[in-house]
Design brief:
Blueprint: E1 5-10, H1 12-16, H2 25-40, E2 44-49, H3 57-62, H4 67-91, E3 96-100, E4 109-110, H5 113-121, E5 125-129, H6 139-149, E6 154-159, E7 164-165, E8 177-178, E9 180-182, H7 183-189, H8 196-204, E10 209-213, H9 219-224, E11 231-234
Parallel strand pairs: 1-2, 1-6, 2-5, 3-4, 3-5, 6-10, 9-11
Antiparallel strand pairs: 7-8, 10-11
Helix pairs in contact: 2-4, 6-8, 7-8
Length: 235
């Protein structure tokens, strides 16, 4: 494997598949099977999961909710996804721990950096829920933050598209895929990859980002093996 320790960022929307809301068990099973192969290959893997399939703070804020309150509700949605992922991974034979940035000891461990690293060293997957515990920060930023904290070699951004395009491929037929970009190109071009805070964190800590299609079976393993899939962002 090309990476000894990696962080995988999953959006909440990815978990709902073709459904309009909630979690598609088939998607969770597919992710769990791919992750199991990665762990068997010896790579340590942590996961940050979003909550947009259940509740998105920005939408709640736009509808009139207090922004901080809406973001906290979104954080709770990520915990639901994290626990669901844990169940799927453990049914696939992978020991998994959920750590949350908001204390809820009955269902998950609190986030403790050294404990998370120890779990990874023991071959367990660690799923980080509740974002970074603060409103106004996205789960993309959480992914970059946790990757830096656990000394991850790379951040994998698993999405519905097969990489980064110069414009939205769902809207523009002439959109061009960018296989390699620098952090600065993403920031200055305002490309919709991850929010600017996440990109800046990865840039400052020299953590490469690989963006690829989650729904192609085996892509997580290919990304971990260093195969040229998706788009790569680095210096």
């Amino acid at each position: 494997m090309a990476y000894a320790r990696a962080l995988l960022k999953l959006s909440g929307e990815a978990l709902m598949g073709d459904q309009g809301y909630g979690i598609d068990p088939a998607i969770v099973q597919s992710i769990a099977e791919d992750v199991a192969k990665v762990i068997e290959g010896g790579t340590q893997l942590a996961i940050v999961v979003g909550g947009g399939n259940i509740f998105r703070g920005l939408k709640g804020s736009a509808a009139g909710m207090d922004r901080a309150t809406a973001d906290y509700v979104g954080m709770l949605a990520t915990v639901m996804n994290a626990i669901t992922l844990q169940d799927g991974l453990e049914r696939a034979g992978i020991p998994t721990r959920v750590q949350t940035a908001i204390g809820m000891q009955e269902v998950a461990e609190p986030y403790i950096r050294r404990k998370a690293i120890r779990h990874l060293e023991k071959g367990r997957v660690v799923v980080f829920g509740a974002g970074c515990g603060n409103p106004f920060f996205t789960t993309d930023t959480t992914a970059a933050l946790r990757a830096a904290e656990i000394n991850a070699d790379v951040v994998f951004k698993a999405t519905k598209v097969d990489g980064v395009y110069d414009k939205d491929p769902a809207v523009h037929a002439d959109a061009v895929k960018q296989e390699h970009l620098t952090y600065q190109q993403v920031l200055s071009g305002e490309l919709a990859v991850m929010d600017s805070t996440a990109i800046a964190l990865c840039k400052d800590n020299n953590i490469p980002i690989v963006v690829f299609n989650l729904f192609e079976p085996g892509n997580i393993g290919k990304a971990v093996a260093g195969e040229p899939i998706g788009s790569r962002i680095n210096n």
